[in-house]
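Form 7-S
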Amino acid sequence: MKDMSKIKIAIVGVGNCASSLIQGIHYYRGKTPQSAIGLMHWEIGGYKPGDIEVVLAFDTDKRKVGVDVHEAIFCAPNCTTVFRPDLPKSGVRVRMGRILDGFSGHMKDYDETRTFVLADEPEPTEDETIAALKESGAEILLNYLPVGSEEATRFYAGCALKAGLAFVNNIPVFIASNPDGKWAKLFEKAGIPLMGDDIKSQLGATIIHRTLTNLFAKRGVKLERTYQLNTGGNTDFLNMLNRSRLMSKKESKTEAVQSVTAHRIPDDDIHVGPSDYVPWQNDNKVCFIRMEGKLFGDVPMNLEMRLSVEDSPNSGGVVIDCIRCAKLALDRGQGGILEAPSAYFYKHPPHQYTDDEAFQMTEQFINS
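Output:
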């Protein structure tokens, strides 16, 4: 029998984002609504952040497989800020996952402290993965695979579907927003919630770029050209040095901005995407935004902005809300794409709305 006071989750990819999420779950267990800084919602559907429990985790790095998940989140190459170091043992050991395209060959050329080191363990079959999901008692599967893991994401989405778990897709592989609606139909038919794609950070490059773009439109400023350049030193940025893995990421980030412009910007006049790997930045992400436009009387103007933020904690609180919205849908017996939370929490949802519209839709979803 399920413990209705807990939200049991499984995680694919025990990297920096999973580290921040798990640290955050425990960090907020000792907080009150008044002292809980950094959350958009203290409670959703009666569930608080500390009600989330990790019951299963998959990874392919030899330093993490077989290790308690509360220890694995601090293993190299993870390099995010440690803000909750004294975690108790979870009793959940990280299992070997499927590799598929979850590992880019160029990663082998870097120092082990900076990159993935594949475990020499047999990969689980689809049936074994489904069985593990069912046996764990997990209700929701979170995807934290590296950018470009197209095959691997589809594999785990299929396993979640067959095991009866909600699927929360935090990376830019188009599952919820798949153009032919294949996954949406499958999850709706099964009565299982689906959310995605590509998580927006709490106060990151995309949400700020969207807000400024929307401001230009509302204030009658014609946006003619813009770029967003991002650098970082974590494994996500190292992985994305393989430009062939960036197609979905670049589309996701670009469309998130294009969707709130007054008039669509020509492709040559907009550049949004990861730009370079700077090892000493570790999990710190630095973003440069430039926007060029014209004011009253066709008078030119430009805006430049620099954002520096720890990348993984910046998405942790958003994912905590995603998990609770997925649980809310499960409690209500609601399957298929969760339209409102996907629009508010993700860069590439099935349908784009302004952030104000998506916020109101999400509040209505939570409170209905």
